[in-house]
Every structure is written in C-alpha cells, then in structure tokens.
Amino acid sequence: MPKLQANKPLLGVLEGKRLAVPPIWLMRQAGRYLPEYRTIRDQAESFLSLCFNPRLAAEVTLQPIRRFGFDAAIIFSDILVVPHALGQHVTFEAGEGPRLDALRDPEALRRLRRSLDDDVLAPIYDTIGRVKSKLPAEVTLLGFCGAPWTVATYMIAGYGSTDQLPARLFAYRHPQAFAELIGVLVEASADYLARQFEAGVEAVQIFDSWSGILPTGEFRKWCIEPIARIVAMVHDRVPGARIIGFPRGAGTELQRYLAGVPVDAVGLDWMTELHFARDHVQKRCPVQGNLDPLALMVGGETLDRSVDAILEALAGGPFIFNLGHGILPDTPISHVERLIARVRGASAAR
Ligand code: CP3
C-alpha cells in the first residue's frame, strides 16, 4: 500500500535508504513536557477522553510537528485502548499511571470480548483522517499498538510495575489461558493496525516495552511468535504495510527477534551498544534510536556527546533518529531544539 514518496524521508529509510540527514521523531513527542499539551489536557475530562476526542487528539498530535518540525507525527492515543475496546475497564490516575480491572485468574478471561468493539475505537480512525489532512507533505503519519506481551502485563496486573511480575507468574502458572489471551490480543492488534492503515497512517510501530524481562524461551513464545503473526496478518490485509518493531530491552535477543519478525525497522533502546547495533542489527534492517531520554533531559555536553556517538555509529546506514524510550515530562523544550539542530546540522556537515 504505502508507496515511497520521495518527499517523505522516514518512509525512504523504511525502504532501506540511507539519508545524509536522518529523519527524526521522538517517542511520546506529544506529552506533558509541552505547555500547549497541558493546556489541551486540562480541557479533557480524563486522559482516555482526550484519546477518544478526535478534534483534541488531532490537535495534540500536530503540536510537536508545528513546534519542532519532526519528520513523523504519531497519532495521540495509548496502547491500553485495546484492552479498553476488549471490554476491560481502563482509567489513568493522575501521577499514578494506568489502572485496569486486573485479570487475576483464567476465569477472569471470560469477561473479555473476543474481538474489538469497533465503536470504542472509531474516534481514533477519525483522528487519523483529521491529522492526515493537515500534515505537511514531507511528514510521515505513524500509527501504533502495544505488543501482546506488553499489553498483557498491564491487563493481568491491573497496573504497571518495574518487574511486571504478575504477568510472568500467570504465564508460568496458566500457560494455556495465557496463550489464549495472547491469541485474542494478536487478532485484535492486527485488526487495529490494519484499520489504522485503512484510515490513513503510512507506517506503524509495535511497542513491546516489557520484552526485556523475559528469558529466551518465553521471549520466543510471548514476543517473537505473536508479533510475527500480527505482521503476517497486517501484510495480508494491507500489502506493503510498513512496520517498525520496538522490543525494548531485548539485548542479545534482538538478533532472534529480527530473524523471526519481518519488520521494516527496529527501534533500539538506549542500553543497546552502538557497535553491536551497527554490526549485528543495522546490517540486516534499518534502525531507529537510541538516545537516552535522561541525556536529553540533562542537555548540554552530555546531550551533544551522546548524539554525536549515535550519529557516528549509525548514520552511515539506514537510520531514523529517536530516543531509546519515551521523552520524560521534565525535559526542557530548549534541549529538544538543541537535539534537532545537532542531528540536522552535524549530519549535514558529515
Ligand atoms: O508517542 C506519542 O506521542 C503518542 C502517544 C503515546 C502515549 N502512550 C501517550 C501517553 C504512545 C505511543 C504511548 C505508548 C504507551 N503507553 C506505552 C509504550 C511505550 C512506553 O512508554 O513504554 C505504554 C507502556 C503505555 C501505557 C501508559 N500510558 C503508561 C504506563 C502511562 C503512565 C505513565 C506516563 O508516562 O504518564 C501512560 C499515560 C500516557 N500515555 C501519557 C501520554 C501522553 C501521560 C498522560 C497524561 O498525564 O497526560
């Protein structure tokens, strides 16, 4: 479906091109570090009502494009709209993160729908149409979903933690029920991504924020295989669909991930060693990443040195500049401006 448009640098990289000035966007580029976001956020009753309000969600999606001129806009929403559309109650408490009606045992799975409630997600497709019509010609529109494993960690625990232990325990104790849940999420995610393409996105990213906590065998079962099924299903419905994988914390599993999942680019977290990334990842697939969000928050020479090291290692091949995880709310706007100037300036001078 999405053909190369010469004026969209990010799509060019997803087709394997190396660009002299790499395209740049940031995970969570629309968010609380922007005063204009906080203004809109205050107008919405809750975080989810912002996600499901096409007028406001489109505005928030476009804010970082207007302010910084990023090469991609990512639709403003959240990975947890999928469990919400499967009938699980989801809320976001200020300062505490997501709260879901936890799935404590296999019995609890019966409360879930088997497929997405289209009415719940319809506003997101509406947002996509609105953003598309207002986006500068050279900016790529990205959709996204969470990977089944990462989404399941929140569904089972009912909240996020630093070890996501409840889902890991559930998967060991009830492998069959867990596989059933992952199966529902695979179908739902593939359907959701295909619909985002049909509504106008030009590429999607699959966020697997918690893939790094699984041992090898579990990583294959709960990360690689389900994502490979999603990619195959999306490609069936949307031939040529461009997909970026982001298996955060995968480390040395990255190579197995790439062997098992035919993504068009892989997002690297900030822990990924740059020469390993260049020699063992970028040789097989375009890469995206991987500035430490803390280096961006700190700014100054720490930021400059980190940016230069990344460009030095990765800008010689197909590469999209990004963070290694989402931008932090305390990040000063002037640091983001400095980052963009450095990536565009230093790259042009190379
Ligand atoms: O990148 C973007 O600008 C698009 C929007 C986007 C959000 N969440 C908005 C958001 C995207 C792509 C996500 C993905 C997401 N959501 C992930 C995967 C990436 C990652 O960060 O690991 C995960 C795990 C979630 C679940 C989630 N949503 C958590 C744990 C939290 C609370 C923690 C936090 O950072 O506030 C959210 C809330 C959330 N999602 C906010 C935003 C802008 C903050 C809500 C607010 O207070 O305004």
Question: What can you see in these coordinates?
Answer:
The radius of gyration is 19 Å and the shape is globular. Helix 12 links the parallel strand 7 and strand 8. The mean pLDDT is 96. The longest helix is centred in the middle third of the chain and has 25 residues, at 175-199. It has helices at 9-14, 35-43, 47-51, 54-68, 81-85, 118-134, 148-157, 165-173, 175-199, 216-237, 254-260, 274-281, 293-298, 300-314, 333-349, and strands at residues 72-74, 90-93, 97-100, 140-146, 203-208, 243-247, 265-267, 287-291, 319-323. The protein is 50% helix and 12% strand. The chain is of the alpha/beta class. Coproporphyrinogen III binds at residues 27-32, 41, 47, 74, 76-80, 92, 97-98, 144, 146, 160, 207, 209, 326.
Strand-helix topology:
Layout: H1 9-14, H2 35-43, H3 47-51, H4 54-68, E1 72-74, H5 81-85, E2 90-93, E3 97-100, H6 118-134, E4 140-146, H7 148-157, H8 165-173, H9 175-199, E5 203-208, H10 216-237, E6 243-247, H11 254-260, E7 265-267, H12 274-281, E8 287-291, H13 293-298, H14 300-314, E9 319-323, H15 333-349
Parallel strand pairs: 1-4, 4-5, 5-6, 6-7, 7-8, 8-9
Antiparallel strand pairs: 2-3
Helix pairs in contact: 4-6, 6-9, 7-8, 7-9, 8-9, 9-10, 12-14, 14-15
The structure holds coproporphyrinogen III (CP3).
Number of strands: 9
Q: Give Rg in angstroms.
A: 19 Å
Helical stretch count? 15
Gap between N and C termini, in Å?
Answer: 34 Å
